[in-house]
Amino acid sequence: VLLSCLHPESLKQVDKLQDCLFETAHLYTQGNYEKTIAQSFELLQEFPACIDLYEFVARSTITSKADLPILFSESSLGDEILQLMYATLSRSGGTQQAVDRLLKISYAVDCTGIGNRLLAFTLYQTHQNHHCGTHKLRAISSSRATPWSCTAYSDRNHAFRYLSACDRVSPANLSVALYRSVLANSSDDETLLSTIPPYRRLKYQAKSQELQKNYTRAADLYRSLWEISDGRGNLVHEATCGLFRNLTRSESYAAAANVIVDTFLARPDVLIGELTVGVEALMRSFPGSLKDDSYIKNATGPLLIYLAQTLRAAEFDNYTTFVAYDDCLRAHDARRPTHLLNGDFQIERHRLLAFLRYVCVPQIMRRSYQIQGTDALENERLAILQYLLVHEPQRKSETESEIAALTKLAAVREALKQVESSRIYVNTEGIRQSLLVKHAEKFDRYKRMLELHDESLRRQLRQFDFMEKTLIYSDVGHQLFEELFFDIRDLFVSSKADGLDTYLSMRIRHGTLAAQFRGEFEQLHLITRYLEADGVYARNEYWTEQFRNLGFKAVAQIDDILRQLSQTVDDLINELNRKWIRISTSPKEQFAMFNYHFSVDDTTELYVALSETTDYTEFVDNCFQALWKRTEKLLDKVRDRLYDEFLPKLTQAITKAESEVNLISSEIRESDFPDRIAACRTGIQNATKRVAEWFTASSLNIVEAFDFHLLVETATLIVQRVHKDVVFHPVSKIETLYKLDGKWFNAFVDVMNILLDNVVRHSAAADVECKILIQHDAEIITILVENSLGEDIDRADRLVRVRELLSPFIGEPSATKLQTEGGSGFGKLHKLLKQDLKLTKAQVSCDIANTGVFRLSITIPDTHLQAEIR
Amino acid sequence: MKVLIIEDDDFKLKELAKFVEEHITGVHIELRRSYQSGLKAAVEISPELILLDMSLPNFDISRTEAGYGLLFFAGRDILLEIRRFKLSPEVIVVTQFEQFGEGDQLTTLEELRQQLASQFPKNYLATVYYHPAQDDWKNKLRELIQTYLNSRPK
Question: Is the CB of B77 less than 8 angstroms away from the CB of A678?
Fold first, then answer.
């Protein structure tokens, strides 16, 4: 082909293939597609490596709207190439995949003529006007010299010479005549035009006008071509590319943008390739020109930007999309996208739907100050999706998936709110049940005493001193009241099954509080963990590496300071956990912040206040109320102390470490150490805020019913928040749709937390692998948690230790283990299953497989857990 | 005179509010803690001066709101909106970080200063580096507020 192009005079009939290619080109230009396909089919039997013939077949099939013929055996290379070329040209789904596959094949058969020709075809289809000249590559990579080889010339005269040579090979060839006509810009050659199909006539007329720089006329002709294309992909593609090209050349940018957006909405595959480059050019050069009202109102701007981002044609931050989104809403006097759903707005329906689907997404809408808060943001998106569900039924499944994902996210967030709000908890119903019969009998005595209206009858000698001659009398009613009240108080604060101390231990002190604060430091690599075996804090590997250039001595000094910071942080947390967040009923207690000591004055006040209460249940309720009132006051103090004492001490420790480290070398200021310290300061403030929120007595009851998905996701999120320094994404397989009553949610979350927390703590890995399997079969629910043990862990020893820990599952939960923090949590697990969830037949077992996988399973009967079906 | 302080660090917020109260007579201070509430206030209450943090949560964090993530360049985004709405407050960025963003978007404080000065010549006054244990920021902020007060039409 090259030789023929370089020396056109040498062009002659070299063989049957060349002769036939000229003839096939003639038939194709004539519009005789049936014959083109038949002839190509015949030739392919003899010349299966001639890619031009595949293209003739694919083009003719699409243009004549025929079915693609079967030329080769199924799954042969020839068959695949034909299918892929057809998919590329037809632009009706799967085009990008076809293009990618064709490129792959062309590279795989690179050493053959097929490779070059396939590459040329693919590049030409995606980048016809690429500056590197894909049309030339196409022209010279044919199997033989053909009429279209003339497009390889930059010089028109040379091209004419070549076409004259073609006349010798194939006289009166229509394809040669057409190329000559285009080159001569003589698109008015009626004789020629009458012999070719109307769409090719339009195409070449448009091309001719374009060459003459009559861009507006060319655009009109391309638009006409588009109109008669009748959905045929190759024609739609040529028409759209031509229309876009000529509109931008005639500076009709808004119209060009509309072409792109309409094409995207109607025929997205057409955008692959050249138009992507066009979008890039349009966005790069002309965004300022795209401000006309119709452009904004009809959502062209935001859709074009979305498109540019999706096609990766241009880099835009979300702010650019947001401005386009906001401009569009403002043009319609709407504050939120949902305002566009009801009313008569000047926005075409298909554009409105696309705007809602692609642009009105949370990551864009989050910037609008018209939508306040995560709930409002997600509700806005949900309302949009509900609308799309009705108005785009063909995309029902896609919309439903997004609704499900969003709903799940909101459900987990709500569930988390409930868990976070329930850390201060007392099972008052449990306490009520556990009050002995004797308590009610004592209440009867108390009631009878109150019926004695004459106070002197209720007097009883309480103290006497004959020497001093003093006698102190007390009110027996008051004395009985104190006994009744203190019985309730003691259960309220200390009942192992239901009391405040148990829940404080389980939901706050058991590693949770420490993790909230430690996590802020750990994720910034400012503190390390205490190594029990060595009795020291671990070396800070991160900063040792970061500051390596400062020399051994400086690094050692910095490490010492950071180990000291680790120690101080732990000391402060331990003080908070062990001294402050404690319960006491003694008047002499100095540190415990949950002090439920009631003085004689306090009880007298209550005694008077409750003296009218004669019903036992009401009396117990009133006592609970008094205890909650006290709890509220104590919680206020805890929150104040967190802000006023704990946080400043923690901040002081950070500042001290920062100043000491800064003194070691001036280079430290150039590192990211100061920024991490600053981030840590803000981080611990947020952690304090979060923890302070735990100390509120108003529990939220949000979850009415739940499935195991919600349970696992909520517990996972909690554990992820606690262990910020590890990667933890358990793989869960939940093989049941069983729904549980919401009243069991918090306890089940506690159960899952203990299991998952143990996985993370004992995996000794930065990236923790964990599998969760939940099944429900024959009225038994099985929860199985699996994780790999680290290489260094003695498996046999671990199994023995875990089995020892699980041994208390026979019998009643151990009171001591319930309020012990920092262990495996199995004592609490026992209590949760047997007492909170009332699963007396629950069983817990474990084993370690040969592969080193640790498995812990819980089996529970489903007797009373199911949610009511409403 | 209305001053808006947009800052999510409570300690810094209190310090700034106290400082402004001490240095501007008859000042009315509005405090906001997120990108969204800050922007809303900037648009709706028309402050004359804004002290602006650079990295902020999207929404105000509360018991029922986790904030919807941290926006590293929230301050710059608020400035973009101020410019878009053609609002006229003068803005002083007060930050305790020397670097912003992550990966490709990592920007030093000096680079950010230059960007803000060239992008927002009508609103941006200066950037002050804040450190809770140092007083340099107070001197710098005092000077800026003084200059601002002197340049205001009487």
Answer: no
Nearest to A477 by CA among A450, A455, A456, A442: A450
Alpha carbon distance A8, A823 (integer Å): 90
First-to-last alpha carbon distance for chain B, in angstroms, is 12
Spatial separation of the C-alpha atoms in residues A254 and A258, rounded to whole Å: 6
Closest alpha carbon within chain A to B102? A672
Distance of alpha carbon B151 from alpha carbon A675, whole angstroms: 34
Measured CA distances, A205 to A54, A186, A246, A747 (Å): 27, 9, 13, 77
What letter does residue A335 receive in the DSSP assignment? S
Q: How many Cβ atoms from other residues are within 10 Å of residue A429's Cβ?
A: 9
Q: And the tokens for A151?
A: 């497009």
At A147-166, the pLDDT tens digits run 888 888 888 888 899 898 88
Q: Is B93 helix (H, G, I), strand (E, B) or coil?
A: strand
User: Residues A717, A720, A721, A723: what is their CA dihedral angle, to the nearest 10 degrees?
Assistant: 160
DSSP secondary structure string for all residues of A484-541: HHHHHHHHHHH-TTTSHHHHHIIIIITTHHHHHHHHHHHTTT----EETTTTEEPP-H
pTM metric for this prediction: 0.76
CB contact under 8 A, B63 and A367: no
Backbone angles phi, psi at A171, to 5 degrees: -65, 145
Residue in A with minimal Cα distance to B56: A682
Collapsed DSSP state (helix, strand, coil) of residue A787: strand
What secondary structure letter does DSSP report for A8? G
Q: Chain A residues with CB-CB distance to B under 8 A?
A: 319, 323, 366-367, 369, 372-375, 377, 413, 417, 420-421, 651, 655, 658-659, 672, 674-675, 678-679, 681-682, 685-686, 689, 693, 696
Q: What are the b/e assignments for A118-157, b being 16+ CB within 10 Å?
A: bbbbbbbbbbbeeeebbbbbbbbbbbbbbbbbbbbbeeee
Give the distance, in angstroms, between the CA of residue A366 and the centroid of all CA atoms in the same chain.
15
What is the spatial distance between Cα A572 and Cα A695, in angstroms, rounded to a whole number?
Answer: 18
Q: Could you tell me if B128 and B142 are in contact, meaning their C-beta atoms sit under 8 angstroms apart?
A: no
ipTM for the predicted complex: 0.93
pLDDT in tens, A329-340: 999 999 999 999
Question: What string of DSSP letters covers A445-488?
Answer: HHHHHHH--SGGGGEEEEEEETTTTEEEEEEHHHHHHHHHHHHH
CA distance A138 to A136: 5
- Report the distance separating Cα B67 and Cα A685, nearest Å: 14
Query: Which two tokens mark A619?
Result: 């009396």
Work out the mean pLDDT of chain A and round it to a whole number: 87
Choose the closest CB to B132 out of A421, A681, A693: A681
What sign does the dihedral A674-A680-A681-A686 (CA atoms) show? Answer: positive
Q: Which two tokens stand for residue A794?
A: 């003695």
